[in-house]
Specification:
1% strand, mainly alpha, 68% helix, 642 residues
Length: 642
């Protein structure tokens, strides 16, 4: 019976059983093996039956298999190269799935330490040839797929010793070739940037990462435009899909309120459809953070190949109006911010990108240019006090749209599990915009009371939570500095003198919120966070001076005119007639900010993020190939395509 079973075994299975028994194979067997289509299921089943000890015992056979793969890859035969790349992908995953201790043990089992440098150098050279040659695009895809598998075998990318060889023998030129070639970029560009994002984060703070250095020093306009086009296409596709999902979801107000308070989880279908590719978003962050020349790509008009996945005409109209990467990114950010539970990491990356952008003088000048206006769609979450969540698309400056985005974020994420870190980043973005406006005396015609009310509402909510957290005090300091910017320097950037009256009116109307902040500062001043509370109380001085100066005058006017509640116009009249006697304290450094830096505050976030990306890519990446695609390789080989 056992003989009969053996007869029905595939040639592929027989050869691999022989290899895993440690038996020697002649050259003819190796040649035949790489011409047979890889049976991924059989391959993984055979390796899964081996214990870690048995795998180590077979080190010699596995080393030889790896070397033969590398040698065969150099023969530039389409079907053979495909089978070899699939074999290498399966082999790397099979070995790393075993608990072999430190990463160097897996390298030894796969390649052998004695020959690792030579073999890996040859392998990377062959991969480079595939990526820069005129080979079938499908073969290039499997070359990149293998590299992605190689870089994601471990959650902790910095402990993946296989990547060290990709640092010693850089694939930068290979990936650049993919990105600058239009036909290849359209199909493989996103895969290349996904791989690049991981390579950029390999021990990025321990030594000079060669890929980071290349990105930082890149001034190749063709390459930077290639990066921009790939990212623009991805973000447009995401926007179209997410907008279609939002359009088709008929969430009731009771369901919305429940999710607003308790963060109820969206349906699985919605999660899957609108899941963000964090590796591409991370790549956008890395390029913006490292390369200041990329700012020109963010702002320039580019064509997008993305198409709407919905038949709804209004959604198509909303997304087609985006004409550059930064405006498209603002729409993307609004969608991310509307569901931060599912997109917490993506939201933080969006704010990090916005922080880098708003630090750049060229980007700020472009966003504030009145001649550069765009009708940007900002997704607005359902709120009971808003009769219509849709806002007519009007061409506005990007600075105007960005302030709308921050205001929307502040108002629609007032939840019990308050995201202090995200709010802190949002305040920092607003502060950077104000610093630029003050420095360049730009008077943006923006409805500032909308922003002021959003900030005050966020403070009111966070303070009601009564949490003893230093992050809260830090947020309050940022808020007080923002309002001090308006009070002390508003004459340099507010659109007209009437805006000052509106500012003072809002401070007087919402004085209870600032009183509670002052009480919070006094409460913890002598207990915890002493220095932070001292800073908060100092920054609140001018707001409290305004309240203390005008409140008695308003009360006196109300008493004299026998009116219990003056109208806004009456309050602003009182304010205008009493400016001269108001005394304010000059605050130092209001128009300065600490430039964004990953170290040390952001390091842990990026470590955790890359772990998550590695795990997700490892779990979702498959090595299988469709029969039709495999037939294409067979045909190419038969007609002699190399």
């Amino acid at each position: 019976m056992s003989v009969q079973k053996t007869l029905f075994k595939s040639k592929f299975s027989i050869i691999y059983e022989s290899i895993l028994k440690g038996e020697e194979q002649d050259e003819g067997v190796w040649e035949e093996l790489f011409l047979i289509k890889v049976n991924v299921g059989v391959f993984e089943d055979l390796f899964s039956k081996l214990s870690s000890h048995e795998l180590i015992q077979l080190k010699g056979s596995i080393n030889k298999l790896f070397r033969k793969c590398v040698q065969g890859l150099g023969e530039e035969h389409s079907i053979k190269s495909l089978n070899i790349l699939m074999t290498l992908s399966c082999l790397v995953r099979a070995v790393w799935r075993r608990d072999l201790g430190e990463g160097f043990r897996a390298v030894d089992v796969l390649v052998g330490f004695d020959e690792a440098e030579q073999v890996m150098s040859s392998l990377i050279e062959q991969l480079h040839k595939i990526l820069v040659s005129n080979q079938l695009q499908e073969l290039k895809y499997y070359a990149i797929l293998f590299l992605k598998i190689l870089t994601t075998v471990s959650d902790n990318i910095s402990q993946n010793t296989m990547i060290e060889y990709l640092m010693m023998h850089s694939l930068w030129l290979s990936l650049c070739k993919v990105i600058v070639t239009p036909a290849v970029r359209s199909s493989l560009g996103s895969h290349s940037l996904s791989l690049l994002s991981l390579l950029l984060n390999y021990r990025k703070h321990e030594y000079s990462n060669p890929y980071s250095m290349k990105i930082a020093g890149c001034d190749d306009e063709l390459l930077l435009n290639g990066f921009g086009e790939i990212l623009l296409n991805y973000i447009n596709r995401y926007n179209n899909t997410a907008l279609a999902v939002r359009q088709n979801s008929n969430q009731s107000y009771s369901e919305y309120i429940s999710s607003w308070i308790y963060w109820t989880t969206p349906t699985t279908d919605q999660e899957n459809v609108t899941q963000v590719d964090l590796s591409l978003l991370l790549c956008l962050y890395e390029i913006v953070h490292l390369n200041r020349s990329f700012t020109t790509v963010l702002t320039q008009t580019m064509s997008s190949t993305a198409s709407s996945e919905s038949s709804e005409g209004d959604i198509q109209k909303e997304t087609e109006c985006h004409s550059n990467l930064i405006s498209t990114f603002l729409t993307f950010s609004s969608l991310i911010f509307s569901n931060i539970k599912q997109n917490m990491s993506a939201a933080q990356l969006c704010f990090d990108i916005l922080l880098c952008v708003t630090e750049d003088n060229y980007a700020n000048a472009f966003m504030h240019d009145e001649n550069q206006v765009f009708p940007v769609f900002i997704y607005r979450t359902k709120l009971r006090h808003r009769k219509d969540n849709k806002k007519e698309l009007t061409a506005m400056s990007l600075a105007y749209t960005l302030l709308d985005l921050t205001s929307e974020f502040l108002m629609t994420n007032l939840i019990k599990n308050f995201p202090f870190e995200l709010y802190s980043k949002c305040y920092r973005v607003i502060h950077r915009i104000l610093c630029y406006q003050k420095k360049c005396r730009v008077r943006l015609n923006y409805p500032w009371p909308t922003l002021w009310n959003s900030i005050i509402s966020a403070v009111k909510w966070s303070n009601s939570l009564q949490l003893d957290d230093p992050e809260i005090i830090s947020n309050y300091i940022q808020v007080s500095r923002i309002f001090n910017m308006f009070v002390m320097y508003g004459d340099t950037f507010l659109p007209n003198p009437g805006s000052y009256d509106e500012l003072y009116y809002e401070l007087l109307r919402q004085h209870g919120v600032f009183d509670s902040l002052n009480e919070t500062g006094l409460k913890y001043k002598g207990v915890t966070h002493k220095e932070a509370c001292k800073d908060l109380l100092s920054n609140l001085h001018n707001v409290r001076a305004i309240v203390n100066h005008f409140s008695p005058k308003i009360e006196a006017w109300s008493t004299a005119n026998k009116i219990s509640t003056p109208t806004p116009e009456e309050v602003m009249d009182i304010v205008r007639s009493n400016y001269d006697t108001l005394t304010l304290k000059l605050q130092d450094g209001l128009d300065h900010f600490e430039r964004y830096s990953e170290v040390p505050k952001e390091q842990q976030f990026f470590t955790n993020l890359v772990r998550h990306i590695c795990k997700e890519k490892r779990e979702t990446t498959t090595v299988q190939i469709e029969t039709a695609a495999y037939h294409k390789f067979t045909t190419a080989s038969n007609i002699g395509q190399i």
